[in-house]
Amino acid sequence: MKKRIVFGAPMVGISDKPFRLIVRHFTKAPLYTEMVSARFYRHGMKSALKTMDIKGEKNIIVQLVGSDIPSLVYTAQAAENAGAVGVDINMGCPIRKPVSDGSGAALMKDIDLAARIAEAVAEAVSLPVSVKTRLGWKLPDEIRLLSPRLASAGISRLVVHARTKMQGFTGLPNWRALNGLSCPGVDLIVNGNIDDEASLNEALLLSGAKGAMIGRALWGEPWLLKTLETGQKSEIPVAETVMEHFERMLLFYGKKGLYASRKHLAHYAKHFIGRQNFCEQMFRAETSDRVRQLIKEFFTRPERGSE
Ligand SMILES: Cc1cc2nc3c(=O)[nH]c(=O)nc-3n(C[C@H](O)[C@H](O)[C@H](O)COP(=O)(O)O)c2cc1C
Q1: pTM score, two decimals?
Q2: pLDDT above 70 for 302
Q3: Which of 174, 198, 230 is the endpoint of a domain?
Q4: Are residues 168 and 244 in the same domain?
């Protein structure tokens, strides 16, 4: 079977360096970072610098969020210097904070600014520039006005979460709304609720997209990207994967990693019987040794399956 084109989605609080290094064990597919605030990065804020840490990694696309062109250009160039293979501009985030300063999904309401941003970033770097957006602010056909403008601005990939901003994460994604989208010279990538072979096939068929981006389904299943890419399942060393992810979280975040790991551990546990009991103990654990012990006991048992 021909390999499918798949991408790991940008997800704040999830697609950080430890997570990407774990996903990388299974696939060479391009992985997006969490969004990096261009303004914070330009002001040297520690958290933004840490989010941009892609040292030692391959095939990483850095996602930027912002609406201030000089900051976006500055941060895009920094991403290029850091070794990114692409830069993405977030034009779909529905969260109040970015939207209130004209970034994220707000750019769907200001197509002229969106196009100027895309053009300035594309001119400033020699990397391919992508935009990740939604179907529209309110209506699913708004993307039809935005996409040709972004194509003329020089982007090379358009990733569309097939919901509107107003929908947030509710309701079914409308993959079909992307069919026949005009974006000459731009690869269209469909996103939203793709979590297995069947949904991948359907999303690609209905949207006519060249590839797909996978987000939440990778949470607790970092091997899924490979399965979808190749159409083949393979034996997964789950216990080793979970333990390595936990150790990497500690290494990257220090003591904070103990708490930041909890959401990942709870998701890994969904494949195993006894998840609730494991989660109760794991959420109470206050030392890394206790968590290690729980991981060892829980993930090496044979009782796979959901309750
Ligand atoms: C926890 C979380 C964080 C997210 N952070 C980002 C982000 O930083 N940038 C972005 O463009 N989208 C972000 N998204 C949206 C995802 O990239 C994706 O578009 C969305 O989850 C739909 O795809 P999925 O159904 O495959 O998860 C986030 C989603 C979640 C659940």
Answers
A1: 0.96
A2: no
A3: 230
A4: no
